[in-house]
Amino acid sequence: MVDLLADVVVSDESSSAIRIVKLVRSGAATTRPELGRLTGLGRSVVAQRVDRAIELGFLEELEGVSATAGRAPRRLRFRSERGLLVTCALGALHIHVGVASLDGDVLAHDHREWDITRGPELTLAAAFEMIAGLLEQVDDVPLWAIAVGVPGPVRFATGRPVSSPMMPGWNGYDIRGRFEERFDAPTWVDKDVNLLAVRERARERKPLDLIYCKIGTGLGAGLLSEGKVHRGAGGAAGDIGHVRVVDEDIPCRCGKTGCLEAVASGWAIVRDARRAVDDGAEGLLVDRLADGAELSPELVAIAADDGDALALSLMQRSARLVGGSIATLVNVFNPSVIVIGGVVAGAGQVFLAEVRRRVYELSLPVATQDLTIIRSADDPREPLRGGMELAREQLFGATFARWFLDGAPSVARCTASRIVEASEY
């Protein structure tokens, strides 16, 4: 640890140059005079640092245009076109991949239905094929970083899943190593809902105390504390899906009974809907099944939004249970924002309204007086954008000092600092 800590010490010259690149990249400063005001550095020092950043390829200087007499200060821009970022979002029943420039704008993306229980070898082979196809669509630009989201707990420092009931055969699998070996780019692996939480932080453009609750095939939460992801000692922070919420012996995929996921997740809703149909239920949902539609959480959510009685009852029960569990988190964590996402939450305002009612009913008033509860953006690219934000955070925050003087990141430089960064996030 001592050697690693010593290795991240940088000179004052590099430190100030790194800060200048960060200010330009964030848009906080675009001219040398602005950099001088924000950093407190003298004009000649700013000039030296800017010239160094330009030499390394991070910045570019553009001629200024003045609306009045005289020459306007030349503007600086971060060269976001120098590298590419890739996000691979693995879900229980799908794979989403996307490629972006260094500013996080998604340039191309792809989606494939996929059952993650097919195991890591087949799943990653499919993901690699999809990513390679996207990289062929963009110009010949080097890949700088990869972010991977998975539907279960992850030890962030190692990039390995930890005992996820949703991912049999994945426990301890070296996802990060496989990606780095295949694409020769530093890779970070995190729980999928953490990527969504990070995306919400980027949208708000400020530090947040936030809970992102995703109710899809499974169920989990991502936690932000003052803008930083709270992952817990073993990567299991926010795993509310396996909190016992009912006394009934309803089996869960984790091997226990009565878990929130066993009664309120997408797969639980589908199970209960199928039982109701088999018992003779009638209505719009049953009619759609008779017409050949496949029973899924999305179908139940759509039917609920259209007013089907069975679908509404299933959604409202799920929302009551989810809301009760979130209320406990509100009392303990005291967030300012709760975001409800996932296919189950797509049932219009029905699901959200019930969650809100339960949270305000069961939480302490002091914990809810400044609380906002909203639905997530209904955009399948949101996990991709969240992954881009995670990659940018790690590249230009946690590991930037290690590879700044190289002008581009490398697996060796970024990997060497992970023991240090794991203690910071």
UniProtKB/TrEMBL annotation:
Alphabetical list of PROSITE patterns matching this protein: ROK
InterPro entries linked to this entry: ATPase_NBD, ROK, ROK_cs, WH-like_DNA-bd_sf
Alphabetized Pfam families for the sequence: ROK
Top-rank taxon, per record: Bacteria
PANTHER family given in the database record: GLUCOKINASE, ROK (REPRESSOR, ORF, KINASE) FAMILY
Stated family: Belongs to the ROK (NagC/XylR) family.
UniProt protein name: ROK family protein
Organism for this UniProt entry: Agromyces bracchium
Lineage: Bacteria, Bacillati, Actinomycetota, Actinomycetes, Micrococcales
